[in-house]
Amino acid sequence: MGFLTDHPHTAITDTIDRIVSSDQFTLEVELASLIQTIKSSKDYTYSNNQDEAARSIRKKLKYGNKLQQIRALELLNLFVSQGVKFSVMYNDSKLLDRLEVIALNSGTDSRGQHYNQLIVKKCVAYVLGWYEFARQQGQSRTYEGLLQLGKTVQRKYSLKRRNKSEARSRRNFMNDEADASVYSANPDVRYGIPQIDMQSEGPKIRLLISDSLATSVSLKNSLMMLPSGVRSTEDEEATAKFIQARAMRRKVLRYLQLVTEGEFLGSLIHANEELVEALTKYDKLGGDVDDDDEITLSDDDDEEEDNVSESSSAVSAVPETYDNNDPFGDQNRI
């Protein structure tokens, strides 16, 4: 064991390592003795004991395999849900940063791999649960870190749900109705068929056809310029042009209801086809509207697909800069 580079394993670290590395241990049963160890251990002060517990959980989340990551989250959730007031643990900046990385799915573990979706969803559910619990505690500084983390995660998933709702709405463009405000036609007295004054409306129709073709071309061009890996729904310019093209098509549909013959009919049909083509391309480049980011847990997650090893995962070989005087630093393996 190197001086200051290898953290000495106290009963706290050993217990957490043991109970999260195997599902043979019931976390609820082991919790009481672990809490007692943190409160009464003589290796460090009470605050340092919480630091060590936070560090052990964080390292399992960062370096652990799938089983260890899941059980580390479950253990932390037990601390919070049982009302254990470990203010140092709940405000540990490194632990909160790791939880945010998992919940927002914004980073990787020590091996450079994205977290399994089951772990991400479980983390989100726990974080939002802690957020509600922390809110009920009033101005307690004990849960301040968890409260701020919950706000961040809640904002992200609320925005995603809103964006998905808007995306689903946009993808119903083929069901758009004609814009009745474009022209209020007086029906034929005998047959009730809407009539249009072609002399007054002709110039407007010509302009609409021209604008529609230009709008469809503009939308197609913006889709061609999308950066690699960016969805059309994520691009503000493409989305703005999509909305414009959709509104333009509703006007074209209105005139198609009124113009049944003559020089404009073929041009209106062509304009509609070009707009549909551009709108459809935007739709396809928007990707599937799925529920990957929904926070409701599902029994269909691929929890059984991976072979969950019960041995501790190896630390990433990527060199990092550490403070060797920090006994709780990431350079120390559990």
UniProtKB/TrEMBL annotation:
Renumbered residue ranges of the record's region Disordered: 289-334
One Gene Ontology MF term: ubiquitin binding
CDD domains recorded: GAT_LSB5, VHS_Lsb5
GO biological process, one term: actin cortical patch localization
Record InterPro entries: ENTH_VHS (IPR008942), GAT_LSB5 (IPR044103), LSB5 (IPR045007), VHS_dom (IPR002014)
Domain VHS: 15-132
Feature: compositional bias, Low complexity: 309-320
Bias type Acidic residues, positions: 289-308
One GO term describing the cellular component: actin cortical patch
Gene3D superfamilies for the chain: 1.25.40.90
PANTHER family assigned: LAS SEVENTEEN-BINDING PROTEIN 5 (PTHR47789:SF1)
Protein name as it appears in the record: LAFE_0G01266g1_1
